[in-house]
């Protein structure tokens, strides 16, 4: 009983702190990088990164509304931060030699290695590695594609999709001076909901965390991908768990109709996003009767009966994570 009281108190303190930060952020005239903006988001991230048993799904409606608005603010600020540093990097003769000026570049290196290892564990076709990969929501600073193409998938072509032509122009400039990546990185300006038959060409599709800022929007995108992706192709999604769900949307495995959910990985360090890997169903099945239903709470460490802490076999072995293998 005492431990439960401590847990409730800790969660109450967390929610109060997050709400206070939201109030300050919502009153700012701009979310462009500045001392005040950087300080508030640093506070927010530091509040949300530590392990928490909080189940976002159980929060009252007013807190859910604040969380939804906060995620949108985070998305806006992230876009402005990426555009700011993409502009700086684009001023160098070879931008790829200076990527470490971005303050969170090391996180992308870790996340790229993590996602590659997860993909490598589950990717199985006649070819050893994917030949064509799409990244939906690549933005002005397409670090995931750059990291994967540079260090892990060196023979793979990456097709980056973003609805913003300016973002694509900035991103393209980053790789234009590189003899290799300029040939293997393609940029498409399009709303992914308007992309249909081309989706069948990709072995793997990554969906950025902030494509679909709420569950309704994200569900529509996932349903669209399920309709047009090739059977057997892999869909990699970014999610969040625990208090990190104040920063990014949570992907409920129940919405992945048309896909087999293979695993869900929850990093337990400064890599914020969880990773959900799924495979487009090859044979038609009765979804209602054959789909493994998981409560949204199963994405939260507090209530996941499928979770166990496992060491992950890669050079970042010090990272702890929860692996929910389906």
Describe the structure in your own words.
- The structure is a single chain.
- The protein is α/β, with parallel strands linked by helices and 326 residues long.
- It has a single domain (95-325), classed as Vaccinia Virus protein VP39 (Rossmann fold, 3-Layer(aba) Sandwich).
- Helix content is 40%, strand content 16%.
- It is built from 9 helices and 9 strands.
- The protein has helices at residues 2-26, 35-48, 61-89, 105-122, 143-152, 165-175, 181-184, 215-228, 287-290, and strands at 132-136, 157-162, 185-189, 204-207, 234-239, 259-267, 274-280, 309-311, 320-325.
- The protein has a 9-stranded mixed beta sheet.
- Strand 6 (259-267) and strand 7 (274-280) form a beta hairpin.
- Helix 1 (2-26) packs antiparallel against helix 2 (35-48) and helix 4 (105-122) crosses helix 5 (143-152).
- The longest helix has 29 residues, at 61-89.
- It starts with a helix and ends with a strand.
- Residues 287-322 have low confidence and may be disordered.
- GO terms for molecular function: methyltransferase activity; nicotianamine synthase activity.
- Synthesizes nicotianamine, a polyamine which serves as a sensor for the physiological iron status within the plant, and/or might be involved in the transport of iron.
- Its EC number is 2.5.1.43.
